[in-house]
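Case study 2.
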Amino acid sequence: MTLEVVRMVMFTVEEAARELRLGITKTRELIATGRLRVARIDRRVLVPADSISEFLAGHMVGGEPTEESSAARTPVPAARGGSGASRSRRTATA
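Prediction:
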């Protein structure tokens, strides 16, 4: 008897969310904005495995940034004067 391994090539949105380690809402947002490609078959929305791979490849740290992933990153301004702890302490007592 031979054991055949079947590679899944299409995922449901819920399965894709698990593969990406994201919540279902975030995964649906990625689909709605076109950042994660899908196949629509009647009422079903399926995420191709290569779409997940492409999405992750575009978000790898230290790799070549894609146009999409570099546009999503915005510089965070440095905090001025003091640490965040003292700032939150002032807020808590004010």
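Helices lie at 13-20, 24-32, 49-57, 67-72, 84-93.
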